[in-house]
Design brief:
Elements (H helix, E strand, L loop, with lengths): L1 H24 L8 E3 L5 E3 L6 E7 L2 E10 L2 E12 L7 H13 L7 E4 L4 E10 L5 H27 L1
Antiparallel strand pairs: 1-2, 3-4, 4-5, 5-7, 6-7
Helix pairs in contact: 2-3
């Protein structure tokens, strides 16, 4: 019985020591840096675990993923915009949507991609040095929306007919 208590105490002390060491060297901690382990104790994820978020903007459902990659992180944001109209539906609408998509080719952050089945996706990805903060994620989202907003509105008008 005493041996079990000693083992539990040693595990708790080790967790506290590791938290104290991180506090001195790596604060602020990134998203999902501390989690509750299977033993019920707080632990530090090494490397940081990927984060996934969803949000709505411009009447679209966006997904955001942050994945650690060495000392940096990769931030990816994407949303399904709709579908390119088929020629049978409307030649003019199809040509207008394709013209808007061609006009997006010079954008620096936002990429409009047409997948199989004529599905239009808005995609952005960036490499972020160091720890990803919530402020930095908001910055990435705002930059994407500012660049894509005029095209999103044109596409919405053309696809709705």
């Amino acid at each position: 019985m005493s041996e079990k208590l000693d083992t539990e105490l040693a595990v708790k002390l080790e967790a506290i020591q590791s938290l104290a060491a991180v506090a001195l060297s790596a604060l602020p901690l990134g998203v999902n840096a501390i989690f509750k382990g299977a033993d019920g104790l707080l632990a530090i994820s090494k490397p940081p675990r990927p984060s996934r978020l969803k949000f709505f903007a411009e009447e679209l459902s966006f997904s955001l993923a942050v994945s650690p990659e060495g000392e940096d992180s990769v931030c990816q944001i994407w949303a399904e915009i709709g579908h390119v109209p088929y020629t049978v539906e409307s030649v003019d609408r199809r040509n207008s949507v394709l013209a808007v998509l061609r006009a997006t080719q010079g954008l620096t952050r936002a990429r409009f991609v047409v997948e199989n089945g004529q599905k239009i996706l808005l995609i952005a990805d960036s490499r972020i040095a160091g720890t990803v903060t919530p402020e930095r994620l908001v910055y990435e989202v705002v930059q994407l929306l500012q660049e894509a907003r005029p095209y999103l509105r044109l596409l919405a008008a053309e696809m709705s007919g």
